[in-house]
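Researcher: Next entry in the queue.
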Amino acid sequence: NKRTIFLKENVMIFVLSGYKLLHFDGAVVKAEAGSLLLMKRGFYVMSDFVEDGLNFKSLLLYFSDEQLRRFLHKFNFTAPAKTAVGDHLILPLNPLLEAFREQYVSYFNYEPSHLAALLSVKLYEVFLLLLAGPRQQSVLAFMQQVVYAQPRDIAYIVKQHLFQPLTVAELAKLSGRSLASFKRDFQQQYQCAPKRWINGQRLSYAQTLLQTTSKQVAEIAVECGFESIPHFIRIFKQTYGFTPNSGRAKKAMI
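Model: Structure for this entry, 254 residues:
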């Protein structure tokens, strides 16, 4: 089954056992034991499949843009990579990466003191190991794309995710801007504050669905990007002067 995933941070996935088939952007990626998957923060529509009885386990390491930026500058990996990559990258494990994975997992079995500090250092270690491998240029290109990508077009971001339950802060992050920059650029482009404009579009679509379909109010709220049904009903009434159900009843009487 397809599902939507919003990654608030970039992620590195070590598959410990089993496998999953990930479908996104027209490509099928097999994440299996012995491989490592890098994914940029962002919004994905994908499906995953695990065979009956297959024991799938994975280790996920999340890292922020800022952590990656500090790493690249600290170790002087600022020269542009000679290749291009997309929003994800799958790599085979080598003995050094396998040893890293085993030691990382063991920290959670024994919970040494200063665990947070240790894990922070281990993040730099795995970055260096990835850049020491045979896919160095692909890894470097992925890292630089995360850190140095130009801000994405606001209209494109909003259009793609208008009916997803994302906050303004999450949309800002997807566009590669700070929250303040996103609000400023949005105001200049739409002459309206982001939250007000987005809610207006969602409510307009909800009104259309109420009048043209037999879907339940809760279904419509979710389809239009509202996670809270009471919140949807409240702002719908504030906007139109009546609740979704009463508005539909009036339409039926006419």
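Model: Strands lie at 2-7, 10-17, 19-24, 27-32, 35-39, 42-47, 57-63, 88-92.
Researcher: Noted, moving on.
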